Amino acid sequence: MSIFLSRSGIFVYLLISALVPQQVIAAPLLRCQIMQNGSTQTLDFKPESDPYQVKAIDINGRFRFKAVVIGDARQIAYIKLYIYDHAEPKPMLLHEAKYIAPVALATTSPAALTGLNDVYALPFQRNLQYGCAVLEVAP
Predict the structure, then answer these.
(1) How confident is the model at residue 17 (pLDDT cuts 50, 70, 90)?
(2) SS3 114
(3) Are 65 and 90 in contact (CB under 8 A)?
(4) pLDDT class for 59, splitting at 50, 70, 90?
(5) pLDDT tens digits, residue range 74-120?
(6) Residue 10, H or E segment
(7) Phi, psi of 55 (to 5 degrees)
(8) Strand 92-100, strand 117-121: pairing
(9) pTM over 0.70
């Protein structure tokens, strides 16, 4: 049995499909708020496939913040967060956190995933605060 559509049938089909809302799949996104020395930065991180390609971000010349978000456009497999001090001769790891298969939320508090974290670097007693949440965003 074969089905043939007339030109008017195709037009009706296209008109109906244009009027019916299409389901939009939301993509996960890690959003972090970083507070250091009186300033606040909001940084967004999308899922990546290669953790070794992720670069650390300079925070006021005193810290480096690295968020490794591994997954795809549908879900996050894991997140690793690293904070380094700008120590000489090379950066020194101060803090590391890992979250396995976090769930994205449509609306959330800025620190829903991690809570608010304080990280201190000696000998100058510098500190950095951060909080991160996994969000769902339209592509």
Answers:
(1) low
(2) coil
(3) no
(4) very high
(5) 899 999 999 999 887 888 999 999 999 998 876 678 899 999 999 99
(6) helix 7-19
(7) -105, 150
(8) unpaired
(9) yes
CA-based torsion, 117, 44, 87, 61: positive or negative: negative
6: which DSSP letter?
Answer: -
Extract the tokens encoding 56.
Answer: 């650390």
The pLDDT value recorded for residue 5 is 53
Is the CB of residue 84 less than 8 Å from the CB of residue 121? no
pLDDT in tens, 102-112: 988 766 788 99
DSSP 66-84: EEEEEE-SS-EEEEEEEEE
Report the sign of the C-alpha dihedral through residues 71, 72, 76, 82, in that order: positive
Q: How many Cβ atoms are within 10 Å of 76's Cβ, its own excluded?
A: 23
Q: Which of 124, 53, 114 lies closest to 85 in space, CA to CA? A: 124
For the sheet containing 27-36, what is the strand order? 39-45, 27-36, 126-137, 117-121
Instruction: State the burial class of residue 30 (Cβ atoms within 10 Å of its Cβ: 0-12, 13-18, 19+).
Output: buried
Neighbours of 117 (CB within 10 A): 15
**Alpha-carbon distances, residue 53 vs 48, 59, 61, 69, 137 (angstroms):** 9, 19, 21, 11, 23
